[in-house]
Amino acid sequence: MKKSKQKMSLAEQINLIRAGVMGANDGILSVAAIVIGVAAATSNIHTILLSGMAGMLAGTISMAMGEYVSVYAQRDAEKRAVADETVRLKVNPQAEQVYVTDKYVATGISRPLATQATSEMFASSPINTAVRERYNIDPTKSTSAVGAAIVSMISFPLGSALPMLTITLVQAQYKMIATIGAVVVALAITGFTAAKIGNAKVSRATMRNIISGLITMTVTYLAGHMFER
C-alpha cells in the first residue's frame, strides 16, 4: 500500500508564503541600501557589485537561520503550552472547562449552548481544546522550520538581484535614480502582498514599506557620500 502524503494546511502554506515575501522584501531593501551607499562613495562598478554580493550572501544565511530559529522557538512555546495544559487537566479538568465556557459566554453565546459546546469538545479532544482556547494555538498544526528556511534562502537572493542588476547595468548618469525607482516599485509589490497575507490595510502597509525603504536608502546614501572619493 502506498502511504498518502499529508498535505500542508492553509496556515502552513501561508506561513511559507509569508517567509518568501519577507525574504524577498529584506533582500531588495538590504542590498539596495548597501549598493546605493557604496555607489555614493565610489563609481567603481566592481566595488559596488562585490559589496552587493557580500550583502546578499550574508543576508541569505541570516534570513534562513533566523526563520529556522524563529520557527523552532515557536514550537518550543507550543510544546510548553501543551505541557502546562496537560498538568492543568490532570489537576483540575473542571476549571479548564469553566474557563472555556466563560470565554464563549463573553463572546455573546448563551451559557447553556457554551456549556454544551465545551463539554462536547472536551469529550473528544481535551488537550487540543484547552490549548487552542487558552493560548490561541492549534497543537495539531505545525510549521516546517526547514521549509521556512529554504523559502527564505531562495527569496532573499532573488529580491537582492534587482538592485544589484539595476545599479550595475544602467548607464552611470541614471543608475542611482533607476535603482531607487526599481526598489520603490518592488517594495510596493512586497508591501501589498504582505498586507494581503496578513489581512492588513493595503494602502497603509504598502506606503509604510515604501517610506521605510526610502529612509533606509537615504541614510546609506548620505553615509556613503561622506566617504566619496
From TrEMBL:
It is found in: Endomembrane system. InterPro entries: Ccc1_fam. Keywords: Membrane, Transmembrane, Transmembrane helix. The chain crosses the membrane at residues 21-42, 48-70, 144-170, 176-195, 207-227. It is a multi-pass membrane protein. Pfam families: VIT1 (PF01988). CDD domains: Nodulin-21_like_1. PANTHER family: FE(2+)/MN(2+) TRANSPORTER PCL1. This is VIT family protein.
